[in-house]
Design brief:
single chain, 131 residues, mainly alpha, 2 domains, three-stranded parallel β-sheet, 5 helices, 9% strand, elongated, transmembrane helix
Length: 131
Amino acid sequence: MVMVGGGINDSVALSTADLGTAVSQGIQVSLQSAGAVLVRSDLLAVPEAVLLSRQTLRTIKQNLFWAFGYNTAALPIAVAGLLNPPISAFAMALSSTLVITNSMRLARFDPRKTISRGTSNRRQGTGITGL
């Protein structure tokens, strides 16, 4: 359940909701009890924030998958002494660079394009296309 509010009477609902979102011009107590704060007072930012958070979680999972995969494959080879230390250091730097590059793709993510494309990933109860 998503709750969006900004008044003093919204603070309890914001803290108990699955996603409590406060409007930045709201009362301080509602800003503190919300899980997210909208910087602009546009309610259309709520689906954009949800899509961005889903894309961020997807990117985190991808980064963890590749980092764990790399370490799972490279560690036994290094322990066996089959990997030269400078090559290991280069491979680790390359792995870190790939994780950072994958994360930087989030800077180009535009949730409005996803919403305007009309993706039909409807979640139960949201009623908003793109969520």
